Amino acid sequence: MATVKHKILVLSGKGGVGKSTFSAQLAFALAAMDFQVGLLDIDICGPSIPKMLGLERQDIHQSNLGWSPVYVESNLGVMSIGFMLPNPDDAVIWRGPRKNGLIKQFLKDVYWGELDFLVVDAPPGTSDEHISIVQCLDATGVDGAIIVTTPQQVSLIDVRKEVNFCKKVGVKVLGVVENMSGLCQPLMDFKFMKLTDNGEQKDVTEWILGYMREKAPEMLNLMACSEVFDSSGGGALKMCNEMGVPFLGRVPLDPQLCKAAEEGRSCFADKDCVVSAPALKKIIEKLIEANGLSMAASNGV
């Protein structure tokens, strides 16, 4: 870890909020800025990172320096237990001490080389893996944690616990990201259905699009947005104001981002991610600027 300048944890108290998706896209974005980046997946029981980086069925290689990460690009290396499973469908049925041992081994025995950023994708919660990573990184220092949530109270209840976890163990909260903040996509990408008298759905997409082309062509370039989760409680922004932590921004639920993650691609190199890519770019730029990470990395601080 002595050769790693900055270490960023990506956490959430709730599962299924898009934390691994954010970690993957953060790593892609930093690598595109010409930083040397490592992405460490410590979700031992549910490693998603190999899939989201397009690295399924890749193997870890051993050298005299230690374990070598699997590389997406020359400046983006990845390490995950997913690379160690003989079959990707195999379940990892381990108790806490064995999980902790592997996390320590990842930190001690993986030879990353000189890194500007190490992004650590953690499982949901505040349990063994989180205590281990914080304790292990304490000696070399961790810049802080990005916490990912969705807008509804069911998620925010658990995310509040994650914020308090960070405060108790002395990890700075770099900011909170509200993911899946409404569904937003081009109107032309929607499928239109009509409910028949017997309760079945009939696809009328072609008729609707044909009607718009003929009668209202100006509508074809519109974006359509809708609330998916209840945000009437104020969402992540209100929680951040109440708990005194930075709010980094919102990322809408974008089917094209989901597709990019499924295919292991960067959303920033994909012209189809017209909604999510600008939102993520703005959040990452705010993160770097607010914490002085860009200047610090380039100066070797």
Automatic annotation (TrEMBL):
GO terms for cellular component: cytosol
One Pfam family, short name: ParA
Entry's Gene Ontology molecular function annotations: ATP binding; ATP-dependent FeS chaperone activity; iron-sulfur cluster binding; metal ion binding
A GO biological process held by the record: iron-sulfur cluster assembly
Family annotation (InterPro entries): Mrp-like_CS, Mrp/NBP35_ATP-bd, P-loop_NTPase, YlxH/NBP35
Keywords attached to this entry: ATP-binding, Iron, Iron-sulfur, Metal-binding, Nucleotide-binding
Alphabetical list of PANTHER family matching this protein: CYTOSOLIC FE-S CLUSTER ASSEMBLY FACTOR NUBP2, NUCLEOTIDE-BINDING PROTEIN NBP35 YEAST -RELATED
Protein name: Cytosolic Fe-S cluster assembly factor NBP35
Origin species: Arachis duranensis (Wild peanut)
